[in-house]
Design a protein that fits this description.
single chain, alpha/beta, Rossmann fold, UDP-galactose 4-epimerase, domain 1, 2 domains, seven-stranded parallel beta sheet, two-stranded parallel sheet, 13 strands, 41% helix, binds nicotinamide-adenine-dinucleotide
Length: 321
Amino acid sequence: MTRRALVSGGAGFIGSHVTDILLANDYAVTVIDNLSSGKREQVPSRASFKELDVCSPDAAALVRDGKFDVICHLAAQIDVRKSVTDPAADANLNIGGSLNLLQAVNQSGYKTRFVFSSTGGAVYGDLVEAPTSEDAPKDPQSPYGTAKFSVELYMGYFARVHGLDCVALRYANVYGPRQDPHGEAGVVAIFCDRLIDGTPLTVFGDGGQTRDYVFVGDVARANLAAATVALPPATGVDSRAFNIGTSVETDVVTLAKVLKEVSGGSSEVVHAAARAGEQRRSAIRNDKAGKLLGWKPKVNIHDGLRDTYGWFAARRTGEKA
Ligand SMILES: NC(=O)c1ccc[n+]([C@@H]2O[C@H](COP(=O)([O-])OP(=O)(O)OC[C@H]3O[C@@H](n4cnc5c(N)ncnc54)[C@H](O)[C@@H]3O)[C@@H](O)[C@H]2O)c1
């Protein structure tokens, strides 16, 4: 029988790739998105699309009645800086929207796997060792990270008390085709646009700050694995949490160098004052996802950046045409 999937935020960057891979694996996919940042044209025509807010009673009703085998919940406010300016708005959507869907799954009485898009870049504190494993202390430095980790705690409650089947995927910095400059790997989008324009690539501070850049196609494969793989029952909050990253640290200077190489662009790299409070190092260990989800990243940074730049360049050509 055809398996049924709901993708919230499926018109967005990562969600549209998750939709693609579920369709390619013969799921019947329904996408809900309020198009606040997502684009209708990014939803494949084979998916059923409903323009809905995840906080709405209509979204809850869809989940209660939809008999979904899996819900990949990606709809969110993703801008860490916005969460700092307006923590309540961030929580209303990132916690409230998630609870709306979780409560509806609970009321449905249907066996649905709930796969939540969390963050490996913002739930661990700044002082943990890189690469960080799932059981490292959680000490979010922003309202965004706090909201994401809160949802993981709520999922623990729904699993223990109501038997819900929940999985948290803690993504590293996700980059790839269709990304925009506001996500956690926004620098890739910014550098791609500047290389196309031939304007300078600005690196803050010495550029030695590192991040774990994971390609969006690999993140989509992680959602597919999390949708299907049998997992042991939830125990503590980390038991159903998986870091989805490469375990490799790449610094900003290297990122700029590789992007210049793959693009053939001639933008110069200029340094600006370091940004106050910016985390120095970040990378997450992925061996748990390897063991339990059978997932490993396949795309290295060179190939991933080449494909990403290619997408940005093609989009620019399309705009001009
Ligand atoms: N991009 C990253 O590096 C990264 C890293 C860690 C975690 N994440 C998480 O992955 C998920 C997807 O992020 P993305 O980078 O694809 O962002 P995105 O902004 O491209 O996608 C989010 C989607 O959610 C939709 N949306 C927003 N509010 C909504 C609402 N109230 N109701 C319905 N739809 C709504 C938007 O229109 C958009 O299509 C988010 O949960 C994000 O927190 C992303």
